[in-house]
Amino acid sequence: MGRMFAQAAQSMGYRVHVYEQSGPSPAGAVADRETVAPFDDAAALEAFARTVDVVTYEFENIPAEPLEAVARIVPVRPSPAVLSICQNRWREKAWLKANGFPHVAYEEALDGDIAPAVERLGLPCVVKTADFGYDGKGQMRISGRDDLARAAAIFRARRCVVERWVDFEKEISVICARTGEGETRAFPAAENLHEIALVRQRGFHFLLRPGLARAGRAVEEQPLAVGDPAPQPRQHRAVIPALEKLRARKRIALEAEP
Q1: 252: which residues sit within 8 A by CB, 6+ positions away?
Q2: What does R_g of the chain's alpha carbons equal in angstroms?
Q3: Of 240, 211, 208, 210, which is closest to residue 224 (Cα–Cα)?
Q4: CA–CA distance, 189 with 198 (Å, rounded to integer)
Q5: What mean pLDDT is predicted for residues 61-83?
Q6: In terms of DSSP H, where are the helices of 50-180?
Q7: Has residue 86 been placed in a domain?
Q8: For residue 78, is the peptide bond before it cis, meaning its omega torsion is within 30 degrees of 0?
């Protein structure tokens, strides 16, 4: 994704400087410049920030603290505050709930003890790690007591969120973009195709059945209406995919990504 971003930016006349902590990267191979240094290297981060006009990131499982340091020198879009919410499923669910998004019933299990949360929600349900999960990773469906015993062992002492299972018909993503002046646009809705609970492919809504295509177009508009009144909306500049699950005509906000 970083490589595609770099190439797209260069096609528009931008120069790209990549910061990567673990050695030469796919994005760095095509970038105008690449810095290889740890995320906690304050001197390297400051030197990097002073060579660019704006900073963004292509992966949510990075520490927010280095971006906060960079943001004191140069604009970071989306903001580190947005990253902090979206990279943790518990904070993400709490944000969706606080801002009026329809969402699936869930329980917190921040100490890894998932049995009480499962008891309150009922079966089937799905347990997800609060941290470092994306595109179906870091989660397990619980359909019976045997599943619960296995999940309790797997997720012991890990921060988790337990969700009621949604028998959804389609899962779609909508990418929204907001400028620094507050102008907002939505890209066409895309359907997510799953294989063994992992997102394997995306296709745009003109490939969906007519009824779901109309639902997709409605969802394209919904994040603009629901998202605008959110606290400090200008922090949410840049591109944010809003992922939703559909069951019949009911739309449920599942997660947001920076």
Answers
A1: 102, 103, 104, 166, 168, 244, 245, 246
A2: 19
A3: 240
A4: 19
A5: 92
A6: 64-71, 80-86, 89-98, 115-121, 145-154
A7: no
A8: yes
Name the band, by pLDDT with cuts 50, 70 and 90, for residue 211: low
Residue given tokens 């760095």 in the structure block: 28
- Which pair of structure tokens corresponds to residue 97? 């709930």
d(CA 151, CA 58): 30
Q: Is 251 exposed, middle or buried (0-12, 13-18, 19+ CB in 10 A)?
A: middle
Q: Are 222 and 251 in contact (CB under 8 A)?
A: yes
pLDDT of residue 247: 46
Number of domains in the chain: 3
Task: Indicate which CATH number applies to the domain containing 146.
Answer: 3.30.1490.20
Residue 208 sits in a domain of what CATH number?
3.30.470.20
Domain annotation covers residue 85? no
Q: What is the mean pLDDT of the chain?
A: 80
Which residue range is the domain that position 125 belongs to? 106-164
Q: Is 62 in contact with 2 (CB distance < 8 Å)?
A: no
Q: For residue range 81-102, list pLDDT tens digits in order.
A: 989 988 888 898 898 888 888 8
pLDDT at position 166 over 70:
yes
Q: Are 52 and 19 found together in one domain? A: yes
